[in-house]
Amino acid sequence: MLRLIQLELQKLWLNRASRVLIIISFILPFTVIILSSIKIPFFGLFTLELGELGIFNFPIIWHITTFFASQFKFFFAIVVVSMIGNEYSNKTLKQNLIDGLSKKEFILSKFYTIVFFSFCATILIGLATFIIGMYYSSYTEANIVFREVEFLLAYFVKLVGFFSLCLFAGMLLKRSAFALGFLFILYIVDWLVFWGAYYIFGTVDSAFKVKSFMPLESMYNLINQPMQRIAMTKFPDKSDMMYDYAVHWYEIAIVMGWTAIFIFLSYRLLKKRDL
C-alpha cells in the first residue's frame, strides 16, 4: 500500500498544476480561522466579532468547520480527475502496466491516494477546529468538547466518497473537463430522480427520501447546513426551526456503498478497456 501511495505522490508532486491545486486544497479550508477573527465595524457604533457570537463554541464548532471545509473539496476533485486524464494523455498508464503494475494495483493506488489525502485533510481540520474552539468556546469540559466529533468521520467519508466518484468519472471519460462536466450532469440526474419520485409518491418528503440515496445528495446529507442550527441557539423558543442535523450511521453506510461501487466500476472499466 505504501509503495502505491508513494508512486502516486511522486507523480502528483512532479506535476506543477497538481502540486499547486493540492496546496490550495489544504490551505483554503483553514480560512475558517481567518473567519473566526473577522471584526465588522458598524458605523463606529459597535464592532461585530464572529468569534464572540458563540458560533465557535463546542460542540457546534465541529459541525460548522467541517461543513465549511467540505465546500472546498472541488479543488482536490480537479486533482483526482486530472491525474487520470494525465495517465491517458501522457501514456503513463500503459507504461506502468508494462513495468509490472497490475490493473488492480493501478486502481488501488488511486484509491489509497484518495484515502490518504482525505485522512490528512480530516486531521488538519480536526486540529484547527480544536484550536479555535479552545480559544473561543465557553465550554472546555471534555464531554462537551468531544461530543460531536463524529462530524470529522462524516467529513472523511464525504471526501473519500466524492473523490471516488471523481475517480470513476475520470476513468469513464478520460478527460478532466468532461469528467467535471459529468458531475454537473449527475447533479441534474439527482433532481430528475427527485421529481420522478414526487410524481410517483405525491409528497416532497418521500421524494427527498428517494433522492437521499443518490450519490451527490447522500454525500451532502452527511453534514447538513449549520445555519439553521446557529439560528436555533439564538432563538431557542422557535420550535419551527428544529431539524435533524445529526450524523447518522445509515447515511455513512450509503456513501460507503457508493464509494465501493465507484471503485469497482473504475476497475471494471480499466479491466475491459483496450489500452
Please render the helix and strand layout as text:
Elements: H1 2-14, H2 16-27, H3 31-36, E1 39-42, E2 46-49, H4 60-70, H5 73-89, H6 92-98, H7 103-136, H8 142-145, H9 150-173, H10 176-201, H11 204-211, H12 215-221, H13 227-234, H14 249-272
Antiparallel strand pairs: 1-2
Helix pairs in contact: 1-7, 2-5, 4-7, 4-9, 5-9, 5-10, 7-9, 7-14, 9-10, 9-12, 9-14, 10-11, 12-14
Summarize the model shown:
With 275 residues, the chain is mainly α. The protein is built from 14 helices and 2 strands, in the order αααββααααααααααα.
How is this structure best described in words?
By secondary structure, this protein is mainly alpha-helical. The chain has one domain. Helices cover 73% and strands 3% of the residues. The protein contains 14 helices and two strands; from the N terminus they run αααββααααααααααα. It has helices at residues 2-14, 16-27, 31-36, 60-70, 73-89, 92-98, 103-136, 142-145, 150-173, 176-201, 204-211, 215-221, 227-234, 249-272; strands spanning 39-42, 46-49. The protein has a two-stranded antiparallel ribbon with strand order 1-2. A hairpin with a 3-residue loop joins strand 1 and strand 2 (46-49). Helix 5 packs parallel to helix 9 (150-173), helix 7 (103-136) packs antiparallel against helix 9 (150-173) and helix 10 runs antiparallel to helix 11 (204-211). It is globular and about 65 Å long. The chain starts with a helix and ends with a helix. The mean pLDDT is 82. Pfam families: ABC2_membrane_2. Keywords: Membrane, Transmembrane, Transmembrane helix. This is ABC transporter permease subunit. It comes from Winogradskyella bathintestinalis. The chain crosses the membrane at residues 20-40, 60-84, 111-132, 152-173, 180-201, 249-270.
